[in-house]
Specification:
By secondary structure, the chain is of the alpha/beta class. The chain has a single domain, classed as NagB/RpiA/CoA transferase-like (Rossmann fold), CATH 3.40.50. It is 29% helix and 21% strand.
């Protein structure tokens, strides 16, 4: 993860412009490749320096998003957000903001993979379009195949409802009706 320290030298920045450093994709590490594709597809990327910085950036983003309460499906996030004073609810409407985690970050696509652990029985298209996702650096995998192998290794009984989100801005010609997601991703180094 030294890449982030090289590219993002100033503290507490929002990192949504990575196009400045153009490299051959074959020379990029999985970390670099994920960020490159994710940001180029319209994802909003945050790389906090530490947990205090993460909390500051998260609270600043939530203030900017300006909702009365934030939807949470994963119960594990409830106590964390409660300690921060973030109003949460366990139900949601389409125009809500959903906070949660993910299973994997797919480097070659810049995609975010979720499972029933994160979305319950809901399909991504049934959930709010705006998402705040909290991920750890060790969740970056080179491709979907490796992500699926990791799921099989990680769980005795693998979760169901495995899905990916990979469109993070409105497509120019959305004739196929592709669903896009406004994703704010916090990547925490572990």
């Amino acid at each position: 993860m030294d890449f982030f320290k090289k590219i993002f030298s100033s503290k507490s920045k929002k990192y949504d412009q990575i196009n400045e450093e153009k490299k051959d994709e074959r020379q990029m590490t999985d970390d670099e490749l994920f960020v490159y594709h994710f940001v180029n597809k319209g994802g909003k990327f945050f790389y906090p320096d530490d947990m205090d910085d993460f909390k500051r950036q998260l609270l600043s983003l939530l203030q900017h998003l300006n909702k009365d309460a934030y939807a949470v499906i994963e119960r594990g996030y409830f106590h964390f957000l409660e300690k921060l004073g973030v109003p949460v609810k366990f139900s949601f409407d389409k125009d809500d903001v959903l906070l949660g985690g993910c299973e994997s970050l797919i480097a070659e696509e810049g995609a975010v993979m979720t499972t029933s652990k994160h979305t319950s029985e809901y399909r991504n298209m049934e959930l709010p379009q705006k998402r705040v996702i909290i991920a750890l650096s060790n969740q970056i995998t080179p491709n979907k195949s490796q992500a699926l192998i990791d799921i099989k290794k990680k769980y005795e009984k693998p979760p169901v409802n495995i899905q990916t989100m990979s469109i993070f801005a409105p497509p120019e010609n959305n004739l196929a009706g592709d669903r896009w997601y406004e994703v704010y991703l916090f990547l925490i180094e572990n």
